[in-house]
Amino acid sequence: MSEKRVVCALGHQALGTDFPGQYKAVHSSVRVLADLIEEGCQLVITHSNAPQVGMIHTALNEYARNHETYNAPMSVCSAMSQGFIGYDIQNMLRMELISRGIYKNVSTVITQVIVDPYDDAFYHPIKVIGRILTREEADAEEAKGNYVTQVEGGWKRIVASPRPVDIVEIDAVNALLGAGQIVVAGGGGGIPVLKQPHRLKSASAIVEKDLTAGKLADLTDADILMILTSEEQVCLGYHTQSRQPLHHVSALEARRYIDDGEFDENGMLPKMEASVNFVSQKPGRRAIITSIDHAVDALHEETGTIVS
User: Fold this and answer.
1) Dihedral angle of Cα 158, 272, 5, 23, to the nearest 10 degrees
2) Minimal CA–CA distance to 278: which of 303, 308, 252, 233?
């Protein structure tokens, strides 16, 4: 059986929301990843990081406040989250594979993603981050040019979610794949950077993880983009009593649903956009959106939403 290259994007459910929760969730998730490998998939794994990067950002900035030192940049928090989530995935997946008699190296690549400084998203921030701020702290953030939004109990910072343009470490990812390794990359959407003549400048933003997964799938020439979320299938009319699950849908049909506003900006919209973008780049590609519990069944098109 020839291997199919699959970029598998793990959502929050697959990772937990704190240290013990992450350990338990990843321990369960790697069994599904190992099942996919036994089904003949060569995996590239990417993942969400919202709870984890939020913990890191809050902890480091609390430290900075109490010790009168500098706040932690979002880029540093993102890199830390990629490292400690990647560590759990590569460690536990290696152990699970060995227990099945499969010997493959698993490597994590701390990944930077180039974004466009003129992306309209920088004028429409949607990602809420960090701890709750007082009014005075929120005013100080706005004075520095940052955005804040009011939440229960105070205010929080809110940052842009620009689209990924390119992946800096893609050659390293492809080299590892060419050597037969399983690669964890693009965690949390990657660290957003702006390309300048002689350097990469970090951007205070969070790249949408599903769009980065789609870009990673395209640049690794994957056969399948698999986005694992909390829902077994994408539904039309999700917030109504007449929900209509989608099973097989063409890229053209999916684009029409997107244009009709069927999907939430912070929900299924980026997943459907990533799927359409990926399958539209090359004939024969598939995108699958389903829950982690149904990943293998969806691989065989027995459930899930299949975009082709």
Assistant:
1) 40
2) 308
- Looking at residue 61, what is its pLDDT? 75
Q: Which of 231, 232, 228, 217 is nearest to 302 (CA)?
A: 232
Q: How far apart are CA 58 and CA 33, in angstroms?
A: 31
Count, residues in the chain: 308
Which of the 8 DSSP states describes residue 153? T
| Cα distances (angstroms) measured from residue 215 to each of 74, 168, 173, 267, 287 | 21, 12, 13, 18, 12
Nearest to 90 by CA among 76, 75, 104, 111: 104
Coil, strand or helix at 183: strand
> Which residue type, as a one-letter code, is found at position 257?
Y
Provide the CA 96 distance to its chain's centre, in angstroms. Answer: 23
d(CA 192, CA 121): 13
Cβ neighbour number for residue 306 with a 10 Å cutoff: 23
Tens digit of each residue's pLDDT (9 = 90 or more) over 159-169: 888 999 999 99
Average pLDDT over residues 222-229: 97
Q: Over 90: is that where the pLDDT of 1 sits?
A: no
**pLDDT surpassing 80 at residue 62:** no
Q: What stretch of H or E contains 275?
A: helix 268-280
Q: In whole numbers, what is the pLDDT of the chain averaged over residues?
A: 91
Token reading at 162? 């620009």
Q: Which helix (H) or strand (E) holds 41?
A: strand 41-47
- Per residue in 132-185, pLDDT (tens digit) is 888 888 888 788 878 888 888 888 888 888 999 999 999 999 999 999 999 999
Dihedral sign, Cα of residue 308, residue 234, residue 191, residue 88: negative
R_g over Cα of the chain = 19
In which order are the strands placed within the sheet that holds 147-151?
Answer: 127-133, 154-159, 147-151
Residue 252 corresponds to which tokens in the numbers above?
């053209």
Q: Is the pLDDT of residue 39 over 70?
A: yes
Chain-centroid distance of CA 97 in Å reads 23
